[in-house]
Amino acid sequence: MLTGKQKRYLRSEAHHLKPIFQVGKDGVNENMIEQMKEALEKRELIKVSVLQNCLEDKDDVAVKLAEGTEAEIVQIIGNNIVLYKESEENKHIQLP
């Protein structure tokens, strides 16, 4: 689990990121989760956009993505979700 200080740091790091995934009306699926796992391994921190036509609640989407990718939810702000997972080979974020 992330501490408050670590989440604050990750939020500041994620501020300038653009969402690299979008969750639409089909919701969360296995293919999307696999692609996110790969992206998290490369980047450690990703931003996901929940589109207006998504039938699921953004909080439910965030929980499904976090469980599927074994990542931490850093923040849900507006329709964006920020996820963090420590990389095994490409560590570049030093948590405080």
TrEMBL record:
SMART domains, per this entry? CRS1_YhbY
User: Which UniProt keyword terms apply here?
Assistant: RNA-binding
The record places domain CRM at 1-96
Q: Name one Pfam family in it.
A: CRS1_YhbY
Domain of life of the native organism: Bacteria
Question: GO molecular function terms here?
Answer: RNA binding
Which NCBIfam families does the record match to this protein? RNA_bind_YhbY (TIGR00253)
What is the protein name given in its UniProt record?
Answer: RNA-binding protein YqeI
Q: State the species of origin.
A: Lentibacillus populi
Q: What is the lineage of its organism?
A: Bacteria, Bacillati, Bacillota, Bacilli, Bacillales
Q: Which gene encodes it?
A: yqeI
